[in-house]
Design goal:
alpha/beta; Signal recognition particle alu RNA binding heterodimer, srp9/1; 2,3-Dihydroxybiphenyl 1,2-Dioxygenase, domain 1; four-stranded mixed β-sheet; 2 helices; globular
């Protein structure tokens, strides 16, 4: 029997306060909160991909094994907006040349330029100048 290719239906982020985290990502991405089901808070589905926040009692521990890369025409300007929404820059990753931020619960994400950018042989970026 031939198998159909699988696709990612939704990304789910564990959160001690899913309402607060959904509000942060809703403001950042311009995707309104569209539903609440049990322990989940959902943002509007876009391009077939859902984004949800699941209530959990455990706080984040350690570095994410997966993170979001979000694009912006001006990543440096977006840093201020992220901080105003309750996020913060993670300076410990500055040597890599990426703008690495954390949401209010500490989940790491990168803000990258919309267009192409160069990486050196070590995988470091150069778009912050």
């Amino acid at each position: 029997m031939a198998h159909s290719p699988m696709r990612i239906h939704a990304l789910i982020v564990d959160a001690t306060n899913p309402e607060r985290l959904a509000a942060f990502w809703s403001d950042l991405l311009g995707r309104p909160v569209v539903g609440r089901t049990g322990p989940y808070v959902w943002l509007r589905r876009e391009n077939g991909l859902g984004l949800g926040f699941q209530q959990t009692v455990e706080r984040k521990a350690g570095k994410n094994r997966m993170h979001f890369d979000i694009t912006s025409p001006d990543p440096a300007a977006e840093q201020q907006r992220v901080e105003a929404l309750g996020g913060r820059r993670l300076e410990e990753y500055a040597d890599g040349g990426f703008l690495v931020m954390a949401d209010p619960e500490g989940n790491e994400f990168c803000i990258i330029p919309e267009g192409p950018f160069e990486l050196d042989d070590e995988g470091r970026a150069n778009y912050l100048g």
